[in-house]
Amino acid sequence: MAKANGNNTGGDLGFEAELFKAADKLRGNMEPSDYKHVALGLIFLKYISDAFEARHAELLAEDAQAAEDKDEYLADNIFWVPRDARWSHLKAAARRLEIGTLIDEAMRAIEKDNDSLKGVLPKDYARPALNKVMLGELIDLISGIALGKGGGKAKDVLGRVYEYFLSQFAGAEGKRGGEFYTPRSVVQVLVRMLEPYSGRVYDPCCGSGGMFVQSEKFVLEHGGRIGDIAIYGQESNYTTWRLAKMNLAVRGIDSDIRWNNEGSFHKDELRDLRFDHILANPPFNISDWGGDRLRDDARWQFGVPPVGNANTAWLQHIHWHLAPFGTAGVVLANGAMSSNQSGEGEIRKAMVEADAVDCMVALPGQLFYSTQIPACLWFLARDKSNGKRGKETLRDRRGEVLFIDARRLGTLVDRTRRELSDADIQKIADTYHAWRGEKDAGEYADVPGFCKSARLDEIRQHGHVLTPGRYVGAEAAEDDGEPFSEKMARLSAQWREQQQAAARLDAAIEANLRELGYGG
Fold this sequence. Notes:
CATH superfamily of the largest domain: Vaccinia Virus protein VP39
CATH architecture of the largest domain: 3-Layer(aba) Sandwich
Strand content: 5-15%
Shape: globular
CATH topology of the largest domain: Rossmann fold
Radius of gyration: 28 Å
């Protein structure tokens, strides 16, 4: 496995894992929730400093005056980094006792010169409780990330490191960590199914910004341009909002991420905007969302959500924000598919009857750091009559819902957590694309035990319960080519032989017991 040393380009498998192991050793007894901000803040500082230095060298070779012009950097989506805030300056001072103060001063200087970072960066490295020897060693470790000469490679390597660190801190923090991080394989399912090639992308509870990062990756991997999508989000946790801002900035992703502590329900920062793609992983089953103060809200087009559970409120908030041909993917607890408590069943029925629900996916268990509650994916559509997707027109899917049961997919990566493989993700996405009638996606066909396209009549028969297992049926038995009559004769003979062998064994045991004086 690759080691995190100065010669590593980050291309080898396991580079991020080795780097995290080394960094994690340095934290000693420090809680992961505190150390997270120490490590991620430094990785962010390293990235923006390296990006600045690379562009500075280019400009210096062309025009010394231009090299000191802030606008030259902003034009390339690069942050201006003052001299004393640059990584080289901090690296030289890594072993000094005042290193914490120097880092805090660097963070303040960067915020002062970059409006979009104001209030975002951590600035408590000088606190007495923070071990300054550990801090110096962490700077040395992060300095060893070789970024190559190309700016694109630098961005990719540090982006990978940042994302991996986020995921590992989420795992270490357990339930609390899951509030800011959605597992990558779950995000990948949403992104590959919705295919956000262009337009506005929105997440009303964006956590650390993972949905946006994967959306941008998808665009680039499929030959698109980052500028083809516009990123919008909202987050109510201030600390998590800061993580999201840094996570996106590390990759040079321009975005409009809003924060207020009231949240998307009570202070919808983007209320008048509509979006082409919405990807969200709202907190499951929130009971204290303040629904009693929102009984007459215009967003509740399918029914007033229960005060004791926000699941149907999230679905309706998201549907409200969809553009005329917009689509959404939402992660929710399984209970949302079948609960009839406090009017939830009536809201679900209204959504189905209005053709707001496009597809339902049941996920395997143990995918999340934060909960063992089984989860599912809801795919919503504003218009299923033709479902325009760019210049492409999809088939008319009104009166139909696709059900996918993916509970058997995925593999355990440790004792408590499962991940979907790339092949699993592609299988789910390909099924949805074929069902929607996308160009070159192939013909859709129901697969017993995995997927079923159900019409409204069938869904009504199930009382508008949307659990995929009710619709897909049992997996088809594999045909081994042996005729049924022959197989039954063979299995019957085998069963009789085993019965006779069992009888002989019982007799032998009884005889042995009699010899030992235990027989009857």
